[in-house]
Amino acid sequence: MKPLILEEGTVKLASDLDRIENASDGLNSYFSVSRNYTSPHNGTALTTAVLTANVVHLMPFILERRKLITNMAFNVTTAAVGNARLGIYRDSGNLYPGLSLVRPATEINLNSTGTKSVGIGFGCPQGLYWLAITTSVNVTIRGFAVTGLNPILGYDNTLSTACGLGYQINRTYSALPTTFPAGATIKTAAPLPALFLTLED
Fold this sequence. Notes:
Blueprint: E1 4-7, E2 10-13, H1 17-21, E3 47-51, E4 55-63, E5 67-78, E6 83-91, E7 97-102, E8 108-109, E9 114-124, E10 127-135, E11 139-143, E12 166-170, E13 185-187, E14 196-200
Antiparallel strand pairs: 1-2, 3-11, 4-10, 4-12, 5-9, 5-11, 5-14, 6-7, 6-8, 6-10, 12-13
């Protein structure tokens, strides 16, 4: 016999679980297919992020409802002669990137300014994900101010003024790994790249 689940005083069958989970009223549950979405932040205007070559940067993205990711993008504000790679990782369950969901083989050329994107076409259930970028050269792209991001990684045991906003790890530019390696540093300061997704039901 299937277990019962209570929802606002009403008995539900476990077979309804997916529908219940996808009925979240969180703001992040609602998306427009004509808009781009990024890491959770407070609406502070974006600034720039100077990315150093041979570093993988990861920023959080929260889905409160199952969605199809159609594209991933970023905006180059100062061009450079080189390339970038993008990827998406599942959270490991410990607020750290784990297995990759998507690692597009396409390298993105950085020699002109403007929006750069790559097609994804991957369905994702609700959960925490990590958006990754790595570059072969130093390049400036659209990014967040420290005060603009939600501190998803909290504060360290010293309770200092710096909150945890993402991750980075030094790694020679190449295809992103299938499983994200241990040892990444928590980001508490710039650069904080703004990486964007477009979504459909």
